[in-house]
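FW: tagging you since you asked about this chain on Friday. Here's the raw sequence from the shared folder, copied in full. Didn't touch anything.
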Amino acid sequence: MKRFGCFQLDAANECLWCDGRQVPLAPKPFAVLRYLVENPQRLVTHDELLDALWPETYVQPQVLRTYVLELRKVLGDDPDEPQFIQTVPKRGYRFLSKVIAVRADAEETDGVSLPGIVGREAEIEKLDGDLSRASRGNRQLIFLTGDAGCGKTFLVDTFCRRVCGEDGVRMARGQSVEGFGGKESFYSVREALGQLIAEEKSGQVLAKMLPAWFGKRTDTEARIPALGEICEAVEALAQGELLLLVLEDLHWADALTLDLISALARRRGNFKLMMLVSYRPAEVDGQHPLKGLKEDLSTRRLCCEIPLGPLPRQAVSEYLLQQLETDVLPAGLASFVHQHSEGNPLFMAATLEHLQGQNLLVLKNGHWQLSTPLAEIELGIPDGLLGIIEMQLGKLNDAERRMLEAGSIVGTIFPAWAAAAVLKEDVADVEDAYALLTRRTRLLNAAGQDELPDGSRSTFYVFSHGLFREALYVRQSAARRADRHRRVAERLKSLFADNEANVASELAHHYEAAGAWKEAIEALQLAADTAASREADHAARELLQHALNLSENMRAEERKSVEGSLMRRLRKYPELDPVQTA
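HL: got it, structure written out here
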């Protein structure tokens, strides 16, 4: 185990940890990080990294940049003022942080084991501690935050089920509803407290102190209770027994509900009150009153936050074992589901459902098996996620959607210069537009900068989830996608003039997607030459064979000469000569 900053790198189990929580990281970026951590404080060249990590496989040097960008996102590293990974232009990278070797067992702590919930044990343990403090008269306010599908509701359900059976605990749970915020004040609060009416003691308190809601309907029927009246009623319920007040989806709450939460958090007195409130940060922009409320209460140490991030691969594996009711998973299934869901619980469940629904994962003779090799499965967007993805994209205006569609042409991670080429706009203007977009929506994040061959710098951006990129890509017409891929290819070729070999594979990809078969084949041949120069014969053979397959799309008179040239080049590698393998 090696420690740097707040991170611990477990090479034996290929895991990265931060403050006791596992940080999701794909195998290839992890391999790059591991090598840099094992060689700190010195320059590690591009060639050294490639030779050390992929000695038998040809990998374009440009791919390293993508992995380092992902590492910077995970580590929260600023490329302009790096704390961990420093880029040495045109040479390689240097790991700056001090690395300390520690015993693996020194980091182990006792956890809780809960049936039906995986990957959230630490959060449940934190809520248990908050509940214990509240039971001693120290009121607690906990903000449970996370994007749609991260499992907030499931976590609250699990915690409430545990609390429900405890003596001396009252529980009231309400939920804000989209569109009700400006129509009915205190909607979620009234719903929550109304659940306590059936209890004799609680019902008496509510009927007496909040007659407008729970008393006999007379002249008070149309009156909304005052803020102070509701506070006093809640505190009366939290005197003898602990009151757990759960308010969900606070991003849709009305202003008076937020005022109530603020007042209850600030009031003095030892009451056995625990407030657990949840919201989606993506729905809370800079103008939303909830943002200012939480920041103010955090500054005054009157609340705490439990953010729900993506689940680690091990939690995904545990989930699959539970859902499939098995002790053994098909090889690679957990990694496949984790990669495509990126640890989002909702996406994870939808991916599993999709695999089963399409009979890609089947039960035979009591064992789960894959009917199709994982490498051949094109998952696309599972049906169960179409609604939530379309809902998120539906909140974009036309200009924002156009910007995101431009980035989706390149991939989940894309540079601003490529989007500018797609849009035929100035790079600086495009970067300004993306800066506004990253502040307004959580669909996109900045991922550092890179120096281009002409000495200029371009910002990279990353979609918050690959499925959002997929949805934005497929909604464009085939003709529009082809035209945009060609624009990126031509700009890439211009940027790397006289050095096209460094980006030959990327050129081939964009030309192929554009249907420019001649240019794609030329780029693949250039990539094959580069691979051969590194004695990566296997990679060179695959690139040439792919070029030969693409030639079938050309007109007959063009195809004949191209096929002849490719066949002659393939004869340098007789084991893959198509004549011999036929």
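FW: The first strand starts at residue 2 and ends at 4.
HL: agreed, and The chain is about 50% helix and 15% strand.
FW: great, closing this out.
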